[in-house]
Please model this.
Amino acid sequence: MSNGIADLQTEITTKRANIAAQIEAMTDENTGKAFKGMETQVDYLKNSLNDLDHIEFPDMSQAEKSLNSIDKFFGKTSSVSIKNHFQQLANAGKLTEEAIEKVGISASTIGVDNLSDVVKYFNDMATSADNASNSISKIDGSFEGVTSAFETANQGNEWDVMSQNIAKAHDMLKEGFLVGTDDFKLSHNGCHHIL
Model:
């Protein structure tokens, strides 16, 4: 049975690589948008890629799936300028679903059900950065002040922990850990506890 799972994992990895290569070939690397006339195919392939990702983790909540899709989309080198633009808008309190749509990005482009998840993602990062900045300004330079700053939880820690747990569970699965093992379940269940 274990060999069958390994074969499926290999097949999923191969299919994911093939789909990703097709998407890359049909996408402008500077904008992250599909070339004219290829939008439908790219959306279909991106949805297929997300479906493959979610097959590996069938117990993921919708929030975990959305976060995973957002991280993958904005983690690509080709999406850096778009990510920076959205982060600047969020930092200024001006990121909206309409602002995302204005640059030609839809929920399906990113692989989420709605753009409100993307707005929340960037707004949470802006809040986290703002809270960190406020914490730093309160540090008086004393040992107690620095220790206190590192002991408090920062805004956005839940997203960071969830993202790290998803990545860890994914790595464990790729390395051949069975989804029924305690390590995998603990890593995967950690995501559910913070939601």
Summary: The two ends are 33 Å apart (CA to CA).
